[in-house]
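Protocol step 4 of 5: obtain the predicted structure for the target chain.
Materials: sequence only (see below). No template structures provided, no constraints applied. The aim of this step is simply to have a reference model before the mutagenesis design in step 5. Sequence pasted as it appears in the construct record:
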Amino acid sequence: MTPPRRHDQGALHWLVVFVVFGLTGALTVQLSGLLLRQLLGLEGSFWGGPWSYRLVYLLLIPPCYSALLATIGALLGKGPYFRARVVRMWRRLLPRWVADRVFGLAVDAPAPPAPGESMAAATSSESAANS
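Step 4 output (structure tokens):
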């Protein structure tokens, strides 16, 4: 069975997707600040410094965001969709050899197509890359 095309998914799907992204962004900022202050004992702000706070803050955001995105997405019934989004994000951030080792070649769900790319083109390019 082929996955539904982007325009075939209903309004409820996209409403859940927008809610998950909104919650994830807001909670990531709050969680990162809490981890910096409570767990690591760093005081400051991103704009006001110190540089150690800024550096650790930037290093904390991607893993916190990924974990929250996959968790909140799964809790709201869109686990495979958001797991694919997380894998796709990390494959873009990490060097190819690292991403291949971490995620392997098989993913539970196909990654969502890039903007302007059809689902058929995305799956055919992925299958060609995995061969």
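Step 4 remarks: The chain has a mean pLDDT of 78. The chain has one domain: 9-130.
Proceed to step 5.
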